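The instructor's notes for this session suggest beginning with a concrete chain rather than abstract definitions. Hand out the sequence below and ask the class to guess, before any prediction is shown, which regions might be ordered.
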Amino acid sequence: MGKRLVVGLGNPGPQYENTWHNLGFKVVRALAGRLRASLSKKNDALTTTVSFLGDDVTLLLPQSYMNLSGKAVRAIANRERIEDQDILIVFDDHDLPRGLLRFRKSGGDGGHRGLRSVINEMNSEAIPRLRIGIRDDSVDEEVGGYDDLADRVLDQLTADELDHFELIAKGGSEAVVEWLRNGIKLAMNRQNNRQILSREAEAAEKARKDAEKKRKKAEREALKEKTNKETDIVSDSHDDDRNSGGSKE
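After discussion, reveal the predicted structure:
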């Protein structure tokens, strides 16, 4: 029996609950629901441990604010003797388009203060992580229209954004289950670059694909009709040749 740790990064308090910067919290809460587990307060974290496929899986939401997240991670990893490679950090990433999933086996903090705290406290960059994009490319491909990124990622979400937030959390929890089942390599192969779209974007993408199918079908039918006409012309020509080439008496 092994031990695994899944950490969602975010800020405590209702004012931060439905903000893009708390996406890590939201994913781990969705995972807790999927595993039928209840998080409870212990020291400076919300946590629970469940059995999954023979492993003891601990879910952790640090409650000491984003830039101090690593303290709770180090405390529980040391207490439970969980190895770096058996820890998964889940967090929002403005460098990726909204809803895009990206597992990494190791690496730097990429400017994310929560991940920076974890790396510093654990004294290791060899900690797997799931980055989930929050950048809104429909506004601006470079910065997502955020005049002040720090403020924007802490803004309350609109109704449409909140719906997308929920969809991403659900998809992100599915990706974490992939990691729990199959490890980081298969999770990277199967989940990386998967993008969870909003309902509006999903409908637009479906309409685009349906239109593309209709276009290709029309092209195939037009080509078939053209081929049939050419075959009929050739057939008529052969009939004329046979008729004009009859025997003379």
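Then share the key points. The chain has two domains: 3-196, 199-244. The chain has seven helices and seven strands.
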